[in-house]
Amino acid sequence: MTDSAAAFYEALRDEIETVLIGKTDLVEHLTLSLLSDGHVLMEGVPGVAKTTVANLFARATGLDVNRVQMTPDLMPADITGTHVYNQTTGEFTLQKGPVFGNVVVADEINRTTPKTQSALLEAMQERTVTVQGETLALPEPFFVVATQNPIEMEGTFELPVAQRDRFQLKLDVGLPTREEERRLLARFDSNPDLGPQDVTQVVTHDDLAAARADASNVYIDERVVDYVLDIVAATRDSADVDHGVSPRGALALQRTSKARAAVDGRDYVVPDDVKALAVPALNHRLVLSTDAEISDVSSVAVIEDVLDSVTPPGAEDVRPNAA
After folding, report:
1. Which terminal Cβ of the chain has fewer Cβ within 10 Å, N or C?
2. How far, in Å, CA of 160 to CA of 85, rounded?
3. Alpha-carbon distance values, 197 to 200, 210, 228, 277 (Å)
4. Which class is domain 4-210?
């Protein structure tokens, strides 16, 4: 195994940190999802740099990026595209929507209606789009980065379960620490126009392909697979949950754990990889019981309780060819 994945992440992290401060965890999780062919949903109040991080990440990767501002009046065709009549030729021609890009930034996805949100379902799962009966392949790679406001905020529509389940990771974007915010103020005081335009491409398509191969080739021991399955089963058995994690969620946890190992320079998954990613990979997939919602139990708390209840294997036992 080479260090392609580790070098890929480090290059992106260092370049993005020339603009932003205190978002290393977001950059890492975006990298993990890109390397494992997933999508990311970021939630946070306005002003915490959700969209900025997505745009910086896209520019640093050099991938073709399309941004969609999701609003209540947006229609599915505004995302997927439609056939437009050409008066000159007398024929209908396909006008592709913004979904036809390597990186699609769906900004404030829960500001638009569930009908329009569903325009991304086929694209995110099958990497194709059907426009008026014609099925078209999307570019490779295809990576959706969506942002959303907390669902308690006015004017939002909660994403349907099927839509949430398409996201490999859900990241909660919080406020910076006081010291991080102090450094941020100083940086933008000296350079008020600093922004995504100041970030340059630092990796190539070949770098991405090599890093993805690294992540795919990471070894995962049967004991770690059992650990993943035990966590997933525990979510289904929880008294606070009506519907636990689906097999898609189990796959997401396994794939991102392999990517985390690769980014860390290892060719095998350790239990800590799984434990570190359980919350972002699984919490948005749970459907809580009515009693849990009334009691203000959060999905994150359920996953944390599950992690406390499931015993991981020993890290020394999960290396390749371990005795």
Report:
1. C
2. 34
3. 8, 26, 40, 31
4. alpha beta
